Amino acid sequence: MQVGARGANVDHLAIGPPGVFVLNTKNVDGNVWVGGDVVMVNGHRRDFVEKLEAEAQRVRRCLLGATRQRSLWVQGLLVFVEPDLAVKQQPRNVVVVHDKELVQRLLEQPVKLKASEVEKLSHAAQQESTWR
Questions:
Q1: What is the 3-state composition of the chain as percent helix, strand, coil, each rounded to the nearest 5?
Q2: Strands 74-80 and 94-98, how do they pair?
Q3: Domain enclosing residue 55, as ranges
Q4: Which pTM was predicted?
Q5: d(Cα 113, Cα 120) in Å, to the nearest integer?
Q6: pLDDT, tens digit only, all 132 positions of the chain
Q7: Cα 95–chain centre separation
Q8: What angle do CA 66, 69, 73 make, to 5 degrees?
Q9: What string of H, E and C letters represents the secondary structure of 19-83?
Q10: How many domains, the chain?
Q11: Of 49, 57, 56, 58, which is closest to residue 92 (Cα–Cα)?
Q12: What span, in angstroms and rounded, lies between the C-alpha atoms of 3 and 40?
């Protein structure tokens, strides 16, 4: 999905009772090490956390504008597909997960939204005008 005038790309958006989740999926070869906001792939620092934080905030602004809600919690999930993943410390504002643990992580989240809010947000997310 393209978001904003510059066409930032959001890989996946999940909306449900636990909230709104922006999923950024990465399929990388080699070792992935995460220590707070630092992500290293094969020894090279990557800006995955910073970019996902910006994507999550952009999604939040767009959905707030479309629904006229006053507040909305949006969580960024950095999902690595089949990596050699070592998470020493989670980033402050993003959660890093292995693709095999994604569904369980989502199911474990506490309920934050009423059914009417989920419906309103889901409807807004399907409207192209929301993302301009």
A1: 35, 35, 30
A2: parallel
A3: 2-131
A4: 0.90
A5: 11
A6: 556 555 568 899 999 999 999 999 999 988 999 999 999 999 999 999 999 999 999 999 999 999 999 999 999 999 999 879 999 999 999 999 999 999 999 999 999 999 999 999 999 999 999 998
A7: 8
A8: 100
A9: EEEEEEEECCCCEEEEECCEEEECCEEECHHHHHHHHHHHHHHHHHHHHCCCCCCEEEEEEECCC
A10: 1
A11: 49
A12: 27
Q: How far apart are CA 119 and CA 17, in angstroms?
A: 10
Taking the C-alpha atoms of residue 132 and residue 129, their distance in angstroms, rounded to an integer, is 6
Tokens of 24: 């950024």
Beta carbons of 40 and 132 less than 8 angstroms apart = no
Q: How many Å apart are CA 122 and CA 99, to the nearest integer?
A: 23
